[in-house]
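UDENN domain-containing protein, pasting as requested.
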Amino acid sequence: MAKFQKEEEEKTLKAISLFCFPEGISWAPLTEYHSETFSFVLTEIDGSRRNGYCRRLLPRGKGARPPEAYCIISSLACFGLFSKIFDEVEKRRQISMALIYPFMQKLREASFPAPGQTVEIKSFIPESGTEIIHLTRPLDSWLEHVNFCTLFDCLTDEEVLQVFAAAVLERRIIFIAEELGTLSQVLHAVAALLYPFTWQHTFISIVPEILIDVVMAPTPYLLGVQKRLLDLVTDQSDLLLVDLSKHKEKTFRVTIGDEDSILPPKLQAEILVALSQRKNVSDVEEAKKVEEVNRVVSEAFLHFFVRTVGHYTSYVKFAKEGPGVFEKRCFYKAIESKTIRHFVKKFMQTQMFDLFIQELEQQQPLGLQQGIFHRKIAEYQKKKSVKTKKH
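Structure tokens follow.
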């Protein structure tokens, strides 16, 4: 590493402890503590992001003792896979610290699984013998770190639509909850609702107490704040403040007030109908339930973008050489629905739309034919064409 890279790495290592213990590291020793898993995002100087995955637990012992945190930093988003690794770490930690190191060494020696693939790790545990641990990476990397179930456990479908409306227009949103796992899962889920677009602004799934001043930033953000810090954020104006407590008496809101009217009414109704389908998957096992709910929810919001801006591919013109050019005015005028046009006019002013188009202009024409978003656009246009021919 160059000198500046080493300095940046040292800063990152210091930052990790802030995110693993956002309450601060001066903990009173405990006799009971339920282990919890949560994640956070570290933004580098060049704007790139790395994911932090953390398991906090109380090691086995007698009397009061402080909790420990185990953390994995990765450029890959694999919450489920890393969570399973933490299960194995925790199981070994309750026997002996010495059992963690050989397991981690085996992990380092194994190649990271490709999407949809599984790796096997052999690990010895006294009294249990040699175990074979299977670590599977999901096929669809887009939803690898997402669990929409938590989001819909905390909020109604209508509240999720309000949050989506505020996020899609890049507003300031703060989520409040007691549990670190709830905050991290909900923030990652909200960011995933924006696919194929990417949140470009400040994203901190759990704000450490020492960094709480970030709530005063005038720029857009998605922040997760523990409930004990609520008094420090309620005096902010022009933001959406969402309480995720499952048994809440009220949802705290300080809002601009137009979240109900941002999205076209007809498309709002379509999303709500699509979301209602997830209630049919309540009787399956947990892993399958998460997978199916993720599919239903992601497709509902993906279809929204197909309906509103899916015609963008027809308005990027490529010359023989050089980047493509997006014909913004023609793209906008091609929208027939007044309510959709009103929404798209606002959406076109966001940084996430602007960057999406910039990346598109840099691609070769063949690049347009790739990805799930383009596939959904093609399916929708085919259905629309068949419907037109019938009439």
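Note for the archive: The chain has a mean pLDDT of 85.
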